[in-house]
Amino acid sequence: MLSGADDISAQRKLRGQSISPMAAVGDYRIVREIGRGGMGVVYEAEQLSLGRKVALKVLPFAGALDHRQLKRFKSEAQAAAMLHHPNIVPVHGIGSDRGVHYYAMQLIEESTLADVIHDLRRLQRTDREPLAALQLTSDLTSGRHLDQRQPVNTVDPRNSNKKSSNSPSSSNQSAVVSPAVAETHRSALSTQNSHQSKSYVQSIAEIGIQIAEALDHAHDEGVFHRDIKLSNLILDDRCKPWITDFGLAIIEADVGLTMTGDLVATLRYMSPEQALAKRVVIDHRTDIYSLCASL
To answer: Does this model's pTM top 0.85?
Structure first.
């Protein structure tokens, strides 16, 4: 049990702009900060009771004082927790500790699609980049991961029921990609036009299919993401895509957050209806537009 002075000190520590490594937040011990945005800061953390790594999203203390921001943070956790799909980052739990609101997700330790595009541009400019950070991009462009994965099991929507995207046949679990030697990476990325290769196009099509099926599942559950973009689409070390960051998501049944009238999300990926920022209902079609813009 903390004393009064210790409790005040701990609250100040947790309520700052960042939480120090080794600090405890509920059942979680902070390891390091891995990202931040308008809706909170994301940390790598250890769940003490289960001894596992998680991604812990924390709402800054100033956000907790704003009723609307706190409501949206809780809505984000609720929306993500409603969804059970192999291409959507799952939520493990939600809570608060000494005024600090948080929720825990599975930790995906790899790159966003925005990172991959950045790597591709760097590789076009120079052949001296460190290859360790570019292995995922190499696997993607060369199609090396495709040989070790089960084929994508697409379903004709005209012959499927609404829940087909959550069936075991569409999980597309993949094997771990074997590390390649540096010469193989260099050959795959610098001696051919990877952007126009058949393997690269096939890889992007496969990613698009999996994300589309995950969004279809979310829409079936009445959840609209509203912020699909390259930085919210993660590739793990097997080139499997994951949708993350439901900070702007709305739940169809929640009328109060559906009719917002606010200009939210990233303009480059917004549908025209969403960019109007008028008090109109934004439905699943805005996610489809954003996915197409991302691809």
So the answer is: no
